[in-house]
Specification:
This protein has about 400 residues and is of the alpha+beta class. The protein contains 10 helices and 22 strands. Bound molecules: flavin-adenine dinucleotide. The site of flavin-adenine dinucleotide (FAD) has 42 residues, from helix 1, strand 11, strand 15, strand 18 and helix 6.
């Protein structure tokens, strides 16, 4: 990817696959990042009649580090916006049970409703929904900056070495854990000793010899972190991990640590040590605020905690829905030339906290228990009692949300 060597011009073509240039008109809302948060926000805003541009640096369809489990909360949020049939349409697999393993114990929990679907399929389908609603989607396009500009922000974009700029009245930043847009305006606090995320995709047929049932999700917990394995609709299996980084950390430590956690938990997948892993930055993080003039953070950029119960996509969808009224109000201000009102950001924070605050707190607690193998083993011991097991499942997977 080339750095712009001169100030970006106003020229380019949003449908620039053919490389021809033309003037870019501004838009009401620019959405940066086409993960679940960005794609759903773009869809909902386009449905309300706004001009919406959705940008993603990656070419779609793309995979990403994820356990690929749609938590019941995520499913009910999709349902709420009329996309409840999407996981089935994509061939998503119902997961009837999760098996939690530690080196000394193993327990299987029946699950109420959990579906796995690959991120390449899910995120592509959500962006198609956004486009069908009227949003314009440009993949392979990196947003390099989004500086405050009269009546909104001016984005600097880059695609295949071509640079241009475009005005947007409001910018939604949904560029994920590794995203850095507006990092200079909104610093992020990372929780000390936060684990790192890592993931790889393997051929699911390799799981046969490792003792993994057809509809099963397995979570293996050990001293150095935990690893989840889930079968996907396309014959692959996602292997996603939250790992403590050893010091020193030699090259290839991720695969070695993940494989050793699995082996200690009785799952022998030695090829994972040599698989191609993709890592993420520290998982548990919180930005100092969720809005800056004419911009809001959504999805993982609005805060994240370790993902044992696989709720990140549900939270991302929640943030996309919660930010909508704030965007509409900001547009009213921008259209009549009024100044940015910080109250919009505060209202968004309060609303998002109401939707996901309790779940994030509960996941944080769960992460704290899982850091201590003895506590995890004790919890699994207690879960031999059906009442305790049911309470744990309700705590982790069973709660119904107000979308
Ligand atoms: C190990 C692990 C396991 C997980 N397992 C689960 C699970 O089982 N279930 C679950 O619900 N969640 C899970 N999650 C969390 C989930 O993956 C995230 O919460 C979710 O993807 C967040 O969506 P998002 O829309 O915020 O961003 P993302 O899905 O991360 O998308 C961000 C997008 O922004 C794009 N981008 C970045 N920078 C730019 C830029 N400058 N310009 C343009 N585009 C840009 C990227 O290319 C990317 O496509 C897991 C996470 C990890 C790390």
């Amino acid at each position: 990817m080339t750095e712009p060597t001169s100030p970006p011009t106003e020229r380019s073509n949003p449908d620039a696959r053919d490389g021809t240039g033309c003037e870019v008109a501004g838009c009401d809302v620019a959405v940066v990042g086409a993960g679940p948060a960005g794609a759903l926000a773009a869809r909902e805003l386009a449905r309300s009649g706004l001009s919406v541009m959705l940008f993603d640096a990656a070419r779609f369809p793309r995979d990403k580090v994820c356990g690929c489990c749609l938590h019941p909360d995520a499913l009910s949020r999709l349902n709420h916006v009329g996309l409840g049939e999407l996981p089935d349409r994509l061939g998503g697999r119902r997961v009837a049970q999760v098996e939690v393993r530690t080196p000394g114990a193993r327990r299987t929990f029946a699950l109420p409703s959990l579906v796995t679907v690959s991120r390449s399929a899910l995120d592509a389908a959500l962006t198609e929904e956004a486009v069908a609603a009227g949003a314009r989607f440009l993949d392979g396009t990196r947003v390099r900056a989004a500086a405050v500009h009269p009546g909104g922000r001016r984005l600097q974009l880059e695609r295949d070495g071509m640079c241009w700029s475009q005005h947007a009245r409001v910018v939604l930043v949904g560029d994920g854990l590794a995203g850095g847009l507006l990092a200079d305006e909104i610093p992020v606090r990372t929780v000390r000793h936060s684990r790192l995320g890592a993931g790889t995709l393997i051929d699911a047929s390799r799981l046969a010899g490792a003792g993994l049932g057809e509809a099963q999700l397995v979570m293996a917990c050990g001293a150095g972190g935990y690893v989840g394995i889930a079968r996907l609709e396309d014959g692959r299996a996602s292997v996603a991990a939250a790992l403590a980084r050893p010091e020193p950390h030699p090259a290839g430590w991720v695969g070695v640590r993940a494989a050793s956690i699995l082996v200690a938990a009785g799952l022998d997948l030695p090829e994972l040590a040599g698989a191609r892993w993709t890592g993420t930055p520290a998982l548990t993080r919180r930005p100092t605020r969720l809005a800056a003039p004419w911009a809001f953070l959504i999805g993982d950029r609005s805060g994240y905690v370790e993902p044992f119960t696989g709720e990140g996509m549900g939270w991302a969808l929640a943030s996309a829905l919660e930010v909508l009224p704030a965007v509409q109000e900001a547009l009213l201000l921008a259209r009549c030339g009024a100044a940015w009102n910080p109250r919009l950001g505060r209202n968004y924070v309060r609303g998002l906290r109401r939707r996901v605050g309790a779940r994030r707190f509960a996941c944080g607690l769960m992460g704290a228990v899982l850091r201590r193998p003895r506590w995890t083993a004790a919890l699994l011991g207690l879960a031999a009692r059906p009442r305790v097991a049911r309470a744990l499942v309700r705590h982790g997977y069973g709660r119904r949300v107000t979308p």
